[in-house]
Amino acid sequence: MKLITYVDIPNYDFKINYDSTLIFSGSCFAENMGEKLSERKFYVSINPTGINYNPISLANSIKRAINQNPISENELFLHEGVWHHFDFHSRLSNTDRYQTLNQINTAIKNFSDKLKSADFIFISFGTAMVFELKKNSKTVANCHKLPAKNFTHRIISTEEFENIWENLLKNLFSFNKKIKIIFTVSPVRYFNEGAISNSFSKAILFTGLSKLLNNSLFKSKIYYFPAYEILIDELRDYRYYTEDLVHPSNLAINYIYQKFSEACFDKYTQSLIKQIEEILMARLHRPFNPDSNEYRKFCSKNLEKINVILQKHPDLNFSEEINYFKKFA
Q: The dihedral of CA 91, 49, 225, 14: what is its sign?
């Protein structure tokens, strides 16, 4: 009896391993996936300039990194005692104007450096809905809780999406000739404007991506991972959502990550991940008696496991785990 509609994962012509340099950029779903890899000791940069939900703001952030275009002091604005920039997430904001300027420009430089050397960038689009400042029609990445009267909003067209991203991809592949891009549409549903608006918005993203993926200029350079489809079709149940009923739960994120892992990592890397996960689980183990001989042996055994891995992969960072196990070994 078939009880699940399984989503076919593309047979990719690449594999990710522990020598790969990765960037995860875009919506909060990109952060969810990036954190999974970071926890497992991959070399990952996650949204260096902050979260971006819409395609225009995300394209602008990548373009700025490619051009190494810093912001100027007069681009910042003060709201409720905090300095912000409309192109950047509030985690780069600060009560000190010059600290905000420095944090943002450092983030741009960091993003540029990462982008230049990355092997893969995972890009997650959240919504085709954009907010624009009324005074100059500029698309903003973050409204920073300013009153709604300051903005208009609209859904971008498929043609707009395609033109912006076709030009950006040309620049990106000129900037970094080896980089490969894995696109996805975030499974998070954006219900602020209602279910119908969310459906129209996602449709724009899918149509625009379809045109990019079928563009011969980008053959063997850009790919699609069906995160949205996995949640909507394979995990078709509200138990796979958080209490707000729009964000995927940890169980769903773990499931989608597992699908990603099976599709994108080679067999050796998958085996190594399992070894690392065992060490991470051991680190979280809470013993009844941490001073017992049994727990000392347990910690010594895990230090040995780490040393075996480090002999083959000396660049992996196990400093936290080593420090912990050494306290009890």
A: negative
